[in-house]
Amino acid sequence: MSAIAIAAVSKVYAGGVKAVSDVDLDIADGEFIVLVGPSGCGKSTLLRMIAGLETISAGTVSIAGQVVNNVDPAARNIAMVFQNYALYPHMTVFDNLAYGLRNRGVPRAEIAARVAEAARMLEIEPFLTRKPKQLSGGQRQRVAMGRAIVRQPAAFLFDEPLSNLDAKLRVSMRGEIRQLQRRLGVTSVYVTHDQLEAMTLADRIVVLNGGRIEQVGKPLEVYHSPASTFVAGFIGSPAMNLATAEVSGGRLTIGGAELAEGLVGLADGRVTVGLRAEDVVPAAAGAPFAIRYVEELGSGRLVHGSVAGQHITMAISPDWPLADAMRVAVAAERLHVFDAATGRRIACP
Predict the structure, then answer these.
(1) Is the pLDDT of residue 145 over 90?
(2) What pTM, to 2 d.p., does this model score?
(3) pLDDT in tens, 155-172
(4) Which residues sit opposite 215 in a β-bridge?
(5) Looking at 134-261, which runs of residues are DSSP E strands?
């Protein structure tokens, strides 16, 4: 078993700067967890505390039931894949893969078998005699993952491993990482600022903001039921529309223009409303919508405009005719309503 338990973990740097605040998170054996958030949210710091590369100011980290706060990184039975590959340039691919095993005194025959198996899984067998400078970025990242695989660790830790790759290669590599993790069944914690990576890779997403957890959930749970305006604006592409609105008698208006009706059970007053672009639709009796500009995506079209001066993006078919004067509406069940003061989600009956 290689479950990871993070209990009330905090990290405070010199001068009282708190990078991580009271984080509680249980990661099941074999689970793929993605830590996501903007730069400075504490995701890499939390990962490095799991790895033992950062000291823990408060709380505990346990791996396979053992508290590892004071355990050296090398003794934690984890393997880390970094953004910069961290390969030895003077060594062949085979030697890069075998280096850690040799240092641990693993028998030569077992080293050869482990390296061969990792190379087969990652399709880098033809490159075993090459040196890193003779490889592409994607091939180097495969070697970095292979070095982690041959260790047969209790957990994989990924620190933005795809950031140095071009967009097309990132897409293919994230698919390979997910398939590989499922095949191996190893507990994995993956750090990224890219919400698309988070959505496509994770069993569960952990959204961090200012060193605290905003929400934990399965990708579609987080997408369809964001716990706060921060999560709503961060998860999803394009980002969720967020606008100041008024609720009165079950009707929702923006600047006096009615956008939805039938909000039964929602108290009257000012709220922040969240609207996914795909849920905003042209409607004969909707709110006036002023088009600012259009993004043609081929398979779809993003229409950027405003309702009562507030920016709204609408995702529609490229076949839908556009006009200077349009009206839009949103079905009541597709609205996301948040407290205007706290930004927390309001449950709508």
Answers:
(1) no
(2) 0.90
(3) 999 998 888 778 888 888
(4) 207
(5) 155-159, 187-192, 204-209, 212-217, 241-248, 251-254, 257-261
